[in-house]
Amino acid sequence: MPPFALILPAAGRSMRFGGPRSKLLETLDGRPVVAWSLAAFLQRDDLALAVIPTGDEPAIREALGSSIDDNRVRFCPGGATRAHSVSNALACVGSDVEWVAVHDAARPLVSQELIDRTFSAAREHGAAVPALPVHLTIKQADGPLPARVQRTLPRHTLWAMQTPQIMRRAELSDAFAACPIPLEQVTDDVQLLELAGREVWLVAGEERNLKITTQSDMRLARQYTHYTPGLSDPDSST
């Protein structure tokens, strides 16, 4: 694989998670969530740089422990929204790095197979994202509830996005510069490429690559680490 840069947004406030501290600092089998997420990429020889935008650098540094001794790891200020944080981090990636992978810091159980699969599709098509089929029936309506249903969306056309989202650095940079909507309305990294008229392809995601948003998600992640061989070691490639 060609060298790539990782952007690991870690500036969220974890409001839906609850509890006294950020979900990224919660421990998963004895190691903070953010440390798992970074370790999945630091073990790769094709990683050229890892940029972590955050609003609490001291806490994230402490959570990462010896990982920050890796000279590929850098920090930058987080932004008001995810898109602003990614933009700040992208500015730290030099033009000599062609590819960028944006991965949720709260997805600690991403596998090497999923990273490889997404990267392979990105190289072929320009940008790629892992996704899972939507199994629930989805109704469109203007909120807040109660609200009248406008229509039922055909769920066979709906896919739930995961990360890493992998694309060319230059194309993401150009898409930020030309974004026709306020960045606070951008909820997905490759949405910027879609708005710029670029193709984005989906590949098969993984159930275990869950994003920790609530306490229930954390309990499920702990079940994965307990019952899946190899996941007890965040540096494992399995």
Q: What's the CATH topology name?
A: Spore Coat Polysaccharide Biosynthesis Protein SpsA, Chain A
- Distance linking N and C termini: 18 Å
Helix content: 25-40%
Task: Give the H and E element order.
Answer: EEEHEHEHEHEEEEEHHEH
Question: How many beta-strand runs?
Answer: 12
Structural class by secondary-structure content = alpha/beta
What Rg, in angstroms, do the CA atoms define? 18 Å
For this structure, what is the CATH class?
Alpha Beta
The description of the largest β-sheet is: 8 strands, mixed
Number of domains in the coordinates? 1
Judging by the overall fold, what is the CATH architecture?
A: Alpha-Beta Complex
CATH superfamily: Spore Coat Polysaccharide Biosynthesis Protein SpsA, Chain A
**Low-confidence parts, pLDDT < 50 over ≥5 residues?**
none
Please report the number of helical segments.
7
Residue fraction in strands: 15-25%
Report the mean per-residue pLDDT as an integer: 93
Shape assignment: globular
Would you give an account of this structure?
The structure is a single chain. With 238 residues, the protein is an alpha/beta fold. It has helices at residues 33-42, 57-64, 82-90, 112-125, 169-178, 191-195, 215-227, and strands at 4-7, 27-28, 31-32, 47-54, 73-77, 99-102, 127-133, 138-141, 149-153, 159-161, 165-168, 201-204. The strands form three sheets. Strands 1, 4, 5, 6, 7, 10, 11 and 12 form an eight-stranded mixed sheet that branches. A two-stranded antiparallel sheet has the order 2-3. The protein has a two-stranded antiparallel ribbon with strand order 8-9. It is globular and about 55 Å long. The relative contact order is 0.19. The mean pLDDT is 93.
